[in-house]
Prior knowledge:
alpha/beta, D-Maltodextrin-Binding Protein, domain 2, 7-stranded mixed sheet, 18 helices, about 45% helix
Amino acid sequence: MQIRCLWMVIALMSWSCVAQELTVSLLLTPKQRNAFHSTFKGFTEETGIKITTITRDDHDYKEKLPIWLNGESNAPDVMHWQASQRLFYYSRQGLVRPITKLWQDLRLDQGFGHLQSGVSDNGQIYALPIAYYHWGIFYRKSLVEEFGGPQRFWEGFVDQCEKLKQAGITPISIGTKNFWPSAAWFEYLNLRFNDLKFHQQVLSGKVSFYDDRLRTLFERWAYLIEQKYFNADHHEYTWDGVLPHFYRERSAFLLLGNFVATKWPDKLRDDIGFMQFPVLLGKPIYEVAPTDVFMIARHSQNVKQAEAFIKYMARPEIQTQLAQGLSYIPASKNAHVMAHSEVEEAANMLKASLGVSQYFDRETIAEFEHIAVRAFTRFLDDADITRLQRDLERARLQAF
């Protein structure tokens, strides 16, 4: 009996002294770092498990992730990633460890059931939703108020863009150096002029790009381009590279996700507003709200610690803390949204919608997305609908 107890003590000491470490990778903007580190500090204080973080910006992270998942030495145990097809691309290769049993044991469907479809595939659950964020149009309040204030309906928004242009102000700024921001315009126009079900059919390759329903939205988008409502030098800027023009009131609107809020200068924060992407009278309303997740790498040697981390991050009070630090909406329905804030307004906007998309590059396969975002970006140059349809249809037939 004494020998058995001695071995138990040795085992516990060994686990606590050697295995109490976990490496977590983060895809973030600089101002988000403190929110994660503060949350992780609480986890370490509670469990004794030390967290080492590996951080990368958007481009570098997406290049490094497949290398990590394929078992590079010193790769992270837990990885910050994105729900839906972005997650399933790796889970279907067997590179992500299912957390189905953990999900069931903790009854996480009670808090995360509304987001479960974005993390479950083929009967297994592969990640924990941690937060999601809204997309829409950000604008300079003082500038836009001079031109009639934010417009709820599409026709009013287009008229306002014309007035801004006549005053020498670029209505809409966009940076397409990395291509993906251009897809936001296709995403929202398709959701507004059609609907979410049709949009998801398009992104799963089931609809020809010569479909008349797509032609309608291409014509609306082409009109904005032909009227020169976008900045002509969009190729020269990354998604955040255009922000100085926005700060100096050389442009009025940005179509982006709420991650951009971490970039606002303190002195301008109160003069930056958020509005829903303009709607069409009588049409159903759908929004874009990508979900961020944590997933456990298949190769992880610290599975117990990784599962303890997932359990901790699933708790409503932790979800609340992290989401407030990120200025995001907590994934758990049992968490609290910041009161009297833009985030609370966005949460109400999403609740009022009939459904949400995860964003273009998360709803489709990479083989199609890589070609499509380049076609959309080229479309911003000359509004050539014929070429856009041809390029997208070729990409659809090739990818699917």
